[in-house]
Amino acid sequence: MNLEDDTQKVQRVLLDEALTKGIQQNEQQCKIWTDYKKGHQKVAETLQIFQKDLYVNCMVPIGKRALMKGKLIHTNEILACLGDGYFAKYSASGAAALCERRIQRADEMLKKLSTERDLYETKMMVIENNVFEDYVGREIVEHWNEDQIVEWKKKHREREREYHQKLAKVRQEEKKKIETEEDLFNRLDQLEIEEELAEFNRLKDEKYELLNEDELEEGECYYESENSSDSEEEEEEEEGEEEEGGGGGGGGKEREEGKEKEDSKEDNKEAAGINQLKVEIHKVKKLVSFAEPEDLLKKEKENLIKEKEKSSKNVVDSEEDVLRIEFNHSKNKLVTKSDGNSIETPADIYRLFSKPKSILKRSPNDLNPEQAPIEYSTDEEEEEEEEKEDDDNDDEDAVKPSAYETVVKDIKEKNTVEVIKEVLEKKQESRDTRPISKFKKDRQLRL
Amino acid sequence: MNPDIQKKILKFETFVNDVLKEDLAQLEQKLDAKNADIAEFLQLKAMITTFKNNGLDKSGFKTQVDIGQNFFIEAQVSDASTILLDIGLGHYMELSIDDAVAVINVRVKLLEQQIKHFRKEIARTNAHIKLILLGIRELQGFDDKM
């Protein structure tokens, strides 16, 4: 304990010395900077005086010990030392400005020095008031000797041996269990039963009514819901289109008459569709369940097969139901601007729907039916198509987002092959042209 | 060891450290000052001789004067035949250049004598220190031959 106290005392003394030294240095610096400042102030004053006269009589110092009678000439030309043996010729006012700048710098330095001094002084105060004297914590010291360590090592080795023996036993038992085929199959059956139980429980919890329960398996619920909603909307949309076509063929007058009715109908339908969508979306929830790897593999295969079938079906459907769009121009006045959420011109659609996309992956649950279609419209071609479509719908004051969606989706499905081709082409291009560095490119351009 | 001797040793040591070494430092400072003076005078003399050699004392010359903090203004000395020399205690005396050279020579000689004196003093104090250290060693009982 004595030793510790001594070391503490020594530390205290050392700290004290360091602080006093710091304060002394600070004072020295302070003196230097104040001198610097005063000198420059004087120079500035004298410059002001000299500036007034053409020449000033003075004694020219020759060395330190001798003077000569002379006069200062060219009082507006001042050679200022910039340091390191470099001089700059200033006018009197320029030199005065230089002095001012230097004085400012000196002021800043003095300010900093004073803050430093404050810090040092507060530290000194802390030490003088013995703030750390009555501290509670002491260093933790554990005493040991060679014998104790040897003993501990022996014990530790024994314990380790015991542990390893136990581990080996457990392993052997496990191996025995799955030695015969019967055991293996038993185990598998058990696992399957567990799996099925888990499945059953989950279904019970969900109370999934809208979708076919047989089809609902893990990971698939999401796709199911989307497909079903899509197909519904498609049908709906087709009906709408047919109606439009009939109206358009009839002529302008008929159209104007039937227009309001159509609108109201479509609005209703739309609303219904959206509601349905919402309901479905709310009911579908993502679930995570854990299954044994073997079962998972099986299931994945099944899923893949099912999906393939579905996609083929979809393709067939879309090929059969090719949309034919016929339209006439109405006699409506041009609407250049619209406010709020009403869609009257193509510009409105652009304004309402193409909002900045988030880069985050959307989960199907928070899919907003009005914004959903935007996700699929990525290519410019599609946008053009949109605009065509919009031209038709322009006549009818309101555009159905559902129609929009189906159209765009159809396009997408058809384009898949082309898209793949494009991608492949791009890849090949990228292979052909090796990446060139920026600088190399520059050089090539210059040549 | 004898306590008396120990006391004596302590006394000697303090004497060496507090008195003799202090004296030595002071003497060295003085010597440095004198050396600086002599260097200045020699420089001044060289300057005056260059004035004379180049005939500047009649035609006058231009120079740069420090007005503080390394700001220089050009100055013209039209008549360089007389010079004001520092003759000590902040008094300056106007002398012709030739006289100034003579005075400077005298001053330099004086300074050289002073320097000699200081050198002697320094040697003496050094000798004292050495002597006392030897005495301390003898008191401590070490062998002289070491």
What layout of secondary structure does this protein have?
The complex is a heterodimer of chains A (447) and B (146).
Chain A: H1 2-52, E1 56-62, E2 66-72, E3 78-83, E4 86-90, H2 92-128, H3 146-177, H4 181-206, H5 221-250, H6 252-283, H7 293-320, H8 346-353, H9 380-394, H10 401-432, H11 438-446
Antiparallel strand pairs in A: 1-2, 3-4
Helix pairs in contact in A: 1-2, 5-6, 9-10
Chain B: H1 3-54, H2 56-59, E1 61-66, E2 71-77, E3 82-86, E4 92-96, H3 97-140
Antiparallel strand pairs in B: 1-2, 3-4
Helix pairs in contact in B: 1-3
Question: What would you say this structure looks like, in words?
Answer:
The complex is a heterodimer of chains A (447) and B (146). Chain A has 447 residues and is mainly alpha-helical. Chain A has helices at 2-52, 92-128, 146-177, 181-206, 221-250, 252-283, 293-320, 346-353, 380-394, 401-432, 438-446; strands spanning 56-62, 66-72, 78-83, 86-90. Chain A has three domains: 2-128, Helix Hairpins; 153-196; 213-432, no CATH class. Chain A contains eleven helices and four strands; from the N terminus they run αββββαααααααααα. Chain A has a two-stranded antiparallel ribbon. In chain A, strands 3-4 form a two-stranded antiparallel sheet. In chain A, helix 1 runs antiparallel to helix 2 (92-128). Chain A starts with a helix and ends with a helix. Chain B is of the alpha+beta class. Chain B has a domain at 28-128: Helix Hairpins (Orthogonal Bundle), CATH 1.10.287.370. Chain B is built from three helices and four strands. In chain B, strand 1 (61-66) and strand 2 form a beta hairpin. In chain B, helix 1 (3-54) packs antiparallel against helix 3 (97-140). The longest helix of chain B is centred in the N-terminal third of the chain and has 52 residues, at 3-54. The radius of gyration of chain B is 25 Å and the shape is elongated. The A-B interface holds A 36, 39-40, 42-43, 46-47, 50, 55, 58-75, 77-81, 87, 95, 99, 102 and B 40-41, 43-44, 47, 62-65, 67-80, 82-86, 92, 100.
